[in-house]
Amino acid sequence: MTTSPVPPAASPSPSSTPTPGVPDRAPRVAVLAGGLSHERDVSLRSGRRVAEALRSSGVEVSVHDVDADLIAALTELRPDLVWPVLHGSSGEDGSVRDVVQLLGLPLLGTGPRASRVAWSKSIAKTLVSRAGLVTPEFVTLPQSLFRELGPARVLSAIVERLGLPVVVKPSRGGSALGVSVVQSPDDLARAMVECFAYGDTALIERAVSGVEVAVSVVDLGDGAVALPPIEIVTDGPYDYDARYNPGRVEYFAPARLSDATRAEVERVALVAHRSLGLTRLSRSDLIVDTEGVVHFLEVNVSPGMTETSLFPQAAEAAGHNLGALYRSLVEASLAAAPVGLEPVPAP
Amino acid sequence: MTSQPLPRPETSGTPTSSAAGTRLDPWLGSYAERTHGMRSSEIRALFAVANRPEVVSLAGGMPFLDGLPLDALSQVAASVVAERGLQALQYGSGQGDQTLREQILEVMALEQITAHPDDVVVTTGSQQALDLVTRVFVDPGDVVVAEAPSYVGALGVFRAYQADVVHVAIDEHGLVPAALEETLAALAAAGRRTKFLYTVPNFHNPAGVSLALERRPQILEIARRYGVLVLEDNPYGLLGFDRDPWPALRSYDEDGVIYLGSFSKTFAPGYRVGWAVAPHAVREKLVLASESAILCPSNASQIAISSYLSTCDWRGQVKSYREMYRERRDAMISALSEHLPEASWTVPDGGFYTWVRLPEGLDARDMLPRAVTARVAYVPGTAFYYDGTGADHMRLSFCYPTPERIREGVRRLAGVVSGERELVELFGTGGGASDDDVVSPAPNIP
Question: Is A236 a residue of the active site?
């Protein structure tokens, strides 16, 4: 999977004034894509798109799978920056990011600790609600608890408390894998079975109906800013099929929101980004209910970058050339990134 | 990457808002109806891990080629270019290379087929022959009768031509004659036109069973009585583990059978050379259809295979494949007996696959993410049915992994089954997930 670096195309116009940390040659970036998660396929596609865009803006790129050759390749290559375009498990739970830092290499994006927090949807929801955001009421339950307490009682308590419909999803995971919207109590057990096939902990939250919006956030060195919100209109659930097969989803970029609501969804995404300690880029998935209240659902530290993904759509809606934007992310990371392990926070 | 195509009207079945939304595909309103279902699915995406070495893939159908005599083959390839380069690199006949067609007769003689070289149409793998036969015979809504389960690649072709596939039961001896009779009678009574019976009589994919010798004439007789052509797909026929090849259906009936053969399993799939043997009028149509699809099969591939057949010990190669796959079958069956006694399975006497019935209540599709987490892959049984049934089965292939890896894969699978079983017992439910259309792995998945 490791590809040899491809000579970059002629650089359009890298910034003329030298920036500390940014080499005065084409930066060399190692893109990590693939891995062994359920989202390997999506990650490979995202990684290829990111690599192509970076090359088009004069960055020297190599693409690496997360496998037994990775550490040797990174050690030998000593790239200026590592960009994990990994989705699911080790790519987003912080562990691969930990290893990159162990190797003393700078990382593009959120560090391992904040990744670990954002990766757990329930922890992220708890933290953002402490920061004042609204998030649908939820419970997080491991499979073992159903065994101990008996599923019928637990499920009926869920229905009683959260009402229906509810959304059942793996507490950790992406691309809507293992996600069900449950309308009737009879379907809840089945949704749990589907969810637990992907992981041992389920997050069950009250389903909020309204306008589904994704807000991407970038930080090019001058602080985090929100890109135009993208509105997602589907003929059914925004599931794997809808996400990666064009046709079932209609996207509106920017979302058809009033100025006030647009400002609010952008604020929510920025609060989520900052309160979870995310770095450089993220994408928050939100719902604006019929009263105009913005509900936080989840945040992605490694948003999808495929042809049908929301982050690139938002970047283009903002007028960014993807190659130039990704290069700016690289340069901002080089200028800012501390190399090595994150300091352990004071107790 | 940032350049957008010229704005075009997006039309689709779903009403769109008046504001400017996008469905990311300007051609959405233009696709033919038959492309419905041609989309990637969650299940298919899970197969992406199968080519990682940590994963034991029991999912794919790739033959294991390591035993091929690459030195001899490189000499063959060199001599093809050195001695016949201008022919090999030129267009060829739509029907295929004459010498190769003669040699194909020798291969088929092993299954007691007698034919004339003119009866043979060389194709780009037998998959193309399947496509051509379906193109020539099937109008939208026509019935194709196929085994239950049936080869997923054939179902894909039938779907693309908008056929209506009606499955017929099989047992450990292949197609059940009484079930075929009943199905054809019911279709005739309903005024449905059955265009052909599609069957894999030897070492069935996915079921692993073979059509018993005594049933072969019975099946042909029933088909003849109902005026139904038989499409005999036989890629594995020479790969019996403990016996010589049985007579092909085509050997009993020259007029009622189209026979499909392939070098992909007995030699190498990379050349993409297969063939059809058909009654003369059908053959003429197949040649014209093939010319309109591809002009001609690859001359370079055909000449290379022809040269391989005439200069290398291809019978010895087939024998060595048989021995290798038998050892792998043995590993698979003994591992299943050891680790998965609560399941049941077919014991194939040739070919690549065993067909496993899961313990009651388990859904092979639901279980696949858990299997991927456990680093093992298989194909859920739903891939092999036209109607989304089959979730209680899975296909395990033993062609590509070594015996040791097969044992490890089955051991992992046993853990997956037991975890899923616990879950299903806990919640008292299982089965009935969404109906993905394309649930088989891509051809280059091990």
Answer: no
pLDDT digits (tens, 9 = 90+) for B219-266: 999 999 999 999 999 999 999 999 999 999 999 999 999 999 999 999
- Asked if B367's CB is within 8 angstroms of A246's CB, the reply is no
Phi, psi of A56 (to 5 degrees): -65, -20
This model of the complex carries an ipTM of 0.87
Q: Enumerate residues 6+ apart whose C-beta is below 8 A from B338.
A: B410
Chain A nearest CA to B17, separation (Å)? 9
B 249-268 residues with CB < 8 A to A: none
CA distances from B430 to A197, B34, B367, B376 (A): 11, 31, 10, 21
Q: What is the pLDDT of residues A135-171, one digit of tens each?
A: 999 999 999 999 999 999 999 999 999 999 999 999 9
Q: Which residues pair with A139 in a beta bridge?
A: A204
- Angle formed by the axes of helices A322-336 and A40-56, nearest 10°: 90
CB contact under 8 A, A44 and B48: yes
Helix (H, G, I), strand (E, B) or coil at A273: helix
Place of tokens 């990371």: A333
A39 is catalytic: yes
Q: Which residues of A301-315 are buried (b: 16+ CB within 10 A; e: fewer)?
A: bbbbbbebbbbbbbb
- pLDDT, tens digit, for every residue of B4-21? 444 443 433 333 344 678
Distance from CA of A102 to the nearest CA of B (A): 24
Q: Across B132-193, where does the E strand assignment appear?
A: 143-148, 164-171, 174-175
The total of other beta-carbon atoms located within 10 Å of residue A147's CB is 13
Reported residue count of chain B is 446
DSSP-based three-state secondary structure for A297: strand
pLDDT at B204 over 80: yes
CA distance B329 to B349: 8
**Number of C-beta neighbours around residue A341 at 10 A:** 12
Q: What is the 3-state secondary structure (H, E, C) of B228-274?
A: CEEEEECCCCCCECCCCCCCCHHHCCCCCEEEEEECCCCCCHHHCCE
CA atoms of A200 and A292, how far apart (whole Å): 34
B43 or A344, which is more confident: B43
Report the chain B residue with the minimal C-alpha distance to residue A57.
Answer: B1
Tokens of A16: 């003329």
Q: Report the distance separating Cα B208 and Cα B381, nearest Å.
A: 13
